[in-house]
Amino acid sequence: MKITVLSGGVGGARFLRGVRAHVREAYPDGAGGSTASVTAIVNTGDDMWLSALRIAPDLDSITYTLAGESDEERGWGRVGESERVSDELRAYNIGWPWFTLGDLDIGTHLARTSMLRDGLTLAEATDRITSRWPLGVHLIPVTNDEVETHVLTQDGADLHFQEWWTRHRATLPAARFVQQNVEAALPAPGVVESIMTADVVLLAPSNPVVSIGTILGIPGIRAALRATRARVVGVSPIIGGSVVRGMADACLTAIGVETAADAVALHYGSRASGGVLDAWLMAEEDASLAPAVEAAGIRASVVPLWMRDTETSAALAAAAIAAATHSNT
Ligand code: FO1
Fold first, then answer.
1. How far is the CA of 115 from the centre of ligand 1 (A)?
2. Angle between helices 10-26 and 57-67 (to 10 degrees)
């Protein structure tokens, strides 16, 4: 059983923890692992250079979460973190005072930056970093190219996504999101293959604009999703008409998509009508929107979507995989 998951950071990390727990239980290898293989294609649009370090927030959120090293309260960075280096950088007025790099986290960024300077690609550096823990999921950045998301605000500013997101908390109305240099970008090695050879492809309940949307914006990804024999199943990041966390509603508004479980599914589109979805998981709170999703040619599954712990995340993963395997019928 080969499962490929398109994923952003925090919501995607929790979902991947559920996928891993589910396959260990449903496809055990007798040694605590699984005979199934899980590959995560990870958004890199949030990445940036800061204080001479290459920061890759979504890759790190997923790595730390699967390693059991993440700060679950904050939603990013390492548990048991300190900020001595960050305080020094601030004293020198280096970096962004509103973007805190923890000491342990800086270890990861130094390791990544050092490998990049030695000529490794981001994917190769990610393989080295993740091999430190038995994550049970293979992480691949969607591209090795630097394709950073910029936000063009309605009053004309051009900000790196991270500044818009962490400094302004997405309160500056965005006119457009731009993936810099995206036209020249290529999927990282193995990305298209992991979509084409999958038995199941899942779109995690990540930000549909700046996480899933940026992955879909990399040349070749949409075509692979439309060509794969696997069923493509998305999980709504909206429950009861609200986003679960983060400021995804500000992103959806910016692109003219309503913050609603059916609107996001229609935004991704059904494979029959030029989009990427075969099926869509939505919460009981949004069950009344299921007919609109079905009418668009996307199979709707109404299931509990709250991921409170590994058990509920595993149940969600099981439902998503079931929607992919049963919709073959
Ligand atoms: N988010 C914040 O709101 N404030 C921060 O100071 C901050 C620092 C930070 C450092 C490393 C990292 O990997 C992530 C960090 N984040 C911070 C979260 C980050 O903005 C998000 O993980 C994603 O980029 C948004 O999905």
1. 22
2. 40
For ligand 1, atom 2: residue with the closest CA:
166
Summarised one tens digit per residue, pLDDT across range 232-283 is 999 999 999 999 877 899 999 999 999 999 999 999 999 999 999 999 999 9
Does residue 232's CB lie within 6 angstroms of at least one atom of ligand 1?
no
Write down the pLDDT at residue 246. 75
What confidence tier does 105 reach under pLDDT thresholds 50, 70, 90?
very high
106-145 pLDDT, tens digit per residue, is: 999 999 999 999 999 999 999 999 999 999 999 999 999 9
- Quote the ligand 1 centre to 327 CA distance (angstroms): 37
Pocket test of ligand 1: the residue of 166, 167, 214, 243 to mutate, having most ligand atoms within 8 Å of its CB, is: 166
Residue 302 CA to residue 306 CA, distance in Å, equals: 12
> What is the structure's pLDDT at 329?
43
CB 7 within 8 Å of CB 62: yes
* Domain residue spans of the chain: 7-146+181-327
For tokens 């709250």, what's the residue?
Answer: 306
Fold of 7-146+181-327: Rossmann fold (3.40.50)
Model pLDDT, residue 10: 87
Ligand 1 center from residue 83 Cα (angstroms): 14
